[in-house]
Amino acid sequence: MEIVKGRPLNVKERLKKEVRVYDLLDELDIEYWRIDHEVAQTMEDCEEVDRILDAVICKNLFLCNRQKTKFYLLMMPGNKAFKTKELSAQIQSARLSFAPEEYMEKFLDITPGSVSVMGLMNDTENQVQLLVDADVLEGEYLGCHPCINTSSLKLRTRDVFTTYLNAVHHDYIAVHLGDRNE
């Protein structure tokens, strides 16, 4: 695995949803680095990628309320534990759970294991609210998938939370989740 600046040369061999991520980042003049790798569906799978990218690979969880009327994308450091009750209290939403796969595909055009903030570009009707652990906002860089879990990107945190989110018409709510390595 090697880190490469910018889009892959072989875009014809890539999924359209992945290429759309590179197209948007290039259009927005956002600098990024990329690494191609085997399928990475868990945080453990991302450890070597994390080391090579030298960026915090975010744990991304796609959540919903019990009624399945409100949907959330939670970005948090991979080394933090997720506690539903803690998050529910902060956003005043009872009974958060993992959202069904079909909503992930419908709103974000992403399949399980590939969840990423980049999927918000596909949420043109703003069905998904972005929630971000405050620790993610403190890092200079973050890592995420380009809507597919066989590549990972390294982006400047400020570019994601300003330029990118503005372009895809989303905002975020900062949350404070438990201690790292808890």
Overview of the molecule:
- With 182 residues, the protein is α/β, with parallel strands linked by helices.
- The protein has one domain: YbaK protein.
- 28% of the residues lie in helices and 25% in strands.
- Strands 1, 2, 3, 4, 5, 6, 7, 8 and 9 form a 9-stranded mixed sheet that branches.
- A hairpin with a 6-residue loop joins strand 7 and strand 8.
- The longest helix has 12 residues.
Radius of gyration: 15 Å
The helix/strand class is alpha/beta
Determine the CATH topology.
YbaK protein
**Domain tally:** 1
Total number of helices: 6
The profile of the biggest β sheet is:
9 strands, mixed
The CATH level-2 architecture is identified as Alpha-Beta Complex
Shape: globular
Ends distance: 30 Å
List SSEs in N-to-C order: EHEHEEHEHEHEEHE
In short:
With 182 residues, the chain is α/β, with parallel strands linked by helices. 28% of the residues lie in helices and 25% in strands. It is globular and about 45 Å long.
Task: Show the helix and strand layout.
Layout lengths: L3 E2 L10 H12 L4 E5 L10 H7 L2 E9 L6 E7 L6 H8 L5 E2 L2 H8 L19 E6 H5 L2 E4 L6 E6 H11 L4 E4 L7
Parallel strand pairs: 3-7, 4-6, 6-9
Antiparallel strand pairs: 1-2, 2-8, 3-4, 3-5, 7-8
